[in-house]
Amino acid sequence: xxxxxxxxxxxxxxxxxxxxxxxxxxxxxxxxxxxxxxxxxxxxxxxxxxxxxxxxxxxxxxxxxxxxxxxxxxxxxxxxxxxxxxxxxxxxxxxxxxxxxxxxxxxxxxxxxxxxxxxxxxxxxxxxxxxxxxxxxxxxxxxxxxxxxxxxxxxxxxxxxxxxxxxxxxxxxxxxxxxxxxxxxxxxxxxxxxxxxxxxxxxxxxxxxxxxxxxxxxxxxxxxxxxxxxxxxxxxxxxxxxxxxxxxxxxxxxxxxxxxxxxxxxxxxxxxxxxxxxxxxxxxxxxxxxxxxxxxxxxxxxxxxxxxxxxxxxxxxxxxxxxxxxxxxx
Length: 330
Known about the structure:
The protein has two domains: 2-222, Spore Coat Polysaccharide Biosynthesis Protein SpsA, Chain A (Alpha-Beta Complex); 228-312, no CATH class. 45% of the residues lie in helices and 15% in strands. It has twelve helices and eight strands. An eight-stranded mixed β-sheet has the order 3-2-1-4-7-6-8-5.
């Protein structure tokens, strides 16, 4: 039976782990161990699990001890390898992990995401079709208070439930996706100064070659961003990234970029209002909190507009986006 199933490797980056605690990481690792065991029971071979981190080679021993403390069963179901990429950013760590894989398929999962039941089987199953190159999972934000519920309503992930229209248009999730190794190893995540731009550029490469990612209901939840400092920084960098994407996909014209910053502000402000009003109940938000959520949502996209406009107008220069030390959750 194992010969009938493609072999696979899993890459987990540790960049996001810097902003959550080990207990939260452990929840995801234990869920991952459960999912690997489940697909192994139906014929998939034991995978190689690559932990890609931004430290030095000698940090592997400390990481291994932490993994054993949090999820001791993970070593029983997977062959774990630790690979260093000193100073590497988010996508650097993913590309670094690809080079250490050996399976026919490469699965990407983030250190701050937690798989639901049947996640891995749902992600791997479509690859029985040889024409499938990329399978894209379903990621949503975990929410348990006013701020996290507001983020879930305004974020670029769909809601956990009842958000079919938005979910059908979801973009490539680098935190929950799988590729054929021969394709992703020859098309690594593109380099870019932006924070979260490479997914969009990789999607363009897929489509240029006639491949369409298959969206499936392979579900993981992502720990919610928390804190006003993150809110401020993430809004601004989202705007700058939006301009970077526009330059790559549409036009480098400064005038066109400035016009786009205004049109996107209007679009996102309207979308935010519609989503908060339509989905607040599904997020567990009391009615009295909705007006305050609308204020927060509009503030986020006003900051996003300033980030995009100031970048497009040349007020802010193009520098490598790094997560500031003061930021809380990723």
